[in-house]
């Protein structure tokens, strides 16, 4: 069991975000002690992690709430099948995003190489401008 502060740090969100997700029904009510302090168990953290992934992928809060309830207590086969289908679709979206990001990274790496070549060329030019030519040396000797 962990406090909301530790849960938020673990998940990379604010405590207010976790309270919001509980308030709007994305997360089931979190167990509280006699003082009203929330205590998250491993299942709560896993469900919150999944909800955050779904939100990060652009799913509206209402759809996240629906998806989370499909795996709540006593899910039906239809609920689990719908949830599985949603996860497969999410996996495909992540694969597509990885391809897109990989292409963007390759473009950035190419740009870095172009900038490096330009820097190298300018340094060579600056170095050659500083060296006296052989004709300049002949007149001085």
Descriptive report:
With 141 residues, the protein is an all-alpha fold. Helix content is 71%, strand content 3%. The chain has 6 helices and 2 strands, in the order βααβαααα. It has a two-stranded antiparallel ribbon. Helix 3 packs antiparallel against helix 4. The longest helix is centred in the C-terminal third of the chain and has 54 residues. It is elongated, with a radius of gyration of 29 Å. It starts with a strand and ends with a helix. The model has no long low-confidence stretch (mean pLDDT 89).
Structural class: mainly alpha
**Low-confidence spans: pLDDT under 50, at least 5 residues?**
none
Q: Radius of gyration over alpha carbons?
A: 29 Å
- How many helices? The count is 6
Classify the beta-strand content into a percent band.
under 5%
Basic shape: elongated
Distance between the termini: 86 Å
Write the layout of secondary structure elements.
Elements: E1 2-3, H1 4-11, H2 15-23, E2 39-40, H3 42-56, H4 61-69, H5 77-130, H6 134-138
Antiparallel strand pairs: 1-2
Helix pairs in contact: 3-4
Index terms:
single chain; 141 residues; mainly alpha; 6 helices
Give a summary of the structure in a few sentences.
With 141 residues, the chain is an all-alpha fold.
């Amino acid at each position: 069991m962990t406090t909301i502060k530790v849960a938020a740090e673990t998940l990379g969100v604010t405590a207010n975000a976790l309270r919001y997700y509980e308030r709007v029904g994305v997360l089931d009510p979190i167990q509280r002690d006699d003082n009203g302090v929330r205590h998250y168990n491993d299942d709560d953290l896993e469900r919150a992690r999944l909800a955050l992934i779904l939100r990060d992928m652009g799913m509206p809060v209402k759809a996240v709430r629906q998806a989370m309830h499909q795996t709540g207590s006593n899910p039906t086969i239809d609920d689990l099948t719908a949830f599985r289908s949603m996860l497969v679709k999410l996996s495909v979206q992540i694969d597509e995003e990885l391809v897109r990001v990989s292409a963007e990274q390759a473009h950035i790496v190419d740009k870095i190489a172009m900038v490096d070549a330009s820097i190298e060329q300018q340094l060579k030019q600056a170095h050659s401008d500083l060296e006296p030519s052989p004709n300049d040396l002949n007149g001085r000797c």
